[in-house]
Write a structure and sequence with these properties.
This protein has 100 residues and is mainly α. It is built from five helices and no strands.
């Protein structure tokens, strides 16, 4: 049973884990990217993006509930994946005339 679940939902699990890893490790590099782009292009919206990612990176590095938030975010992404997959499955059934 678990092998089939992992095979069936491999893409969703990779997306969920990838999202959690991005939040854990890549918020600060993203902030740096926005900072450098702001200085290169002089677009104020890029500086706002830098500030948002910098605050998020700092918060996720010192907040005592960061691991719970990472787990909740990964579960949320996986549930959204399951919902989209279910909607696509039902839409295919309706197109074939097998659904209600």
């Amino acid at each position: 049973m678990p092998e089939t679940f992992l095979k069936t939902h491999r893409k969703g699990l990779f997306l969920a884990v990838g999202f959690a890893l991005y939040i854990k490790f890549f918020l600060l590099p993203t902030a740096t990217l926005f900072y450098e782009a702001y200085h290169l292009l002089k677009i104020e919206l890029l500086y706002v993006g830098y500030q948002v990612f910098k605050v998020a990176a700092y918060t996720m590095s010192v907040w005592q509930y960061r691991h719970i938030v990472l787990l909740a975010a990964a579960i949320f992404v996986f549930l959204v994946y399951l919902l989209i997959r279910k909607i696509k499955y039902h839409n295919n059934l309706l197109k074939q005339g097998d659904g209600l």
